[in-house]
Design a protein that fits this description.
By secondary structure, the chain is mainly β. The chain has one domain: N-terminal domain of TfIIb (Single Sheet). Helix content is about 10%, strand content about 25%. Strands 1, 2, 3, 4 and 5 form a five-stranded antiparallel beta sheet that branches. The longest helix is centred in the N-terminal third of the chain and has 6 residues. The protein is globular. The termini are far apart. The model has no long low-confidence stretch (mean pLDDT about 90).
């Protein structure tokens, strides 16, 4: 089950409050401003700054 588009429209980066987008593989949310990826586990976005991973070119 994918994340609902309405939910994606409401979510922002917890660090900078900027826009986020889905990764190409749809397994995470990317903040381009902070260069962080927030993982999606069991269809739940993990929006904790300390859990975020640095953005790699393959994640984009």
């Amino acid at each position: 089950m994918a994340i609902d588009q309405h939910l994606l429209d409401l979510l922002v980066c917890p660090k900078c409050k900027g826009d986020i987008r889905l990764t190409a593989r749809k397994d995470g949310l990317v903040c381009d401003a902070c260069r962080l990826v927030y993982e999606i586990r069991d269809d739940i976005p993990i929006m904790l700054i300390e859990e975020a991973k640095p953005l790699q070119s393959a994640d984009a």
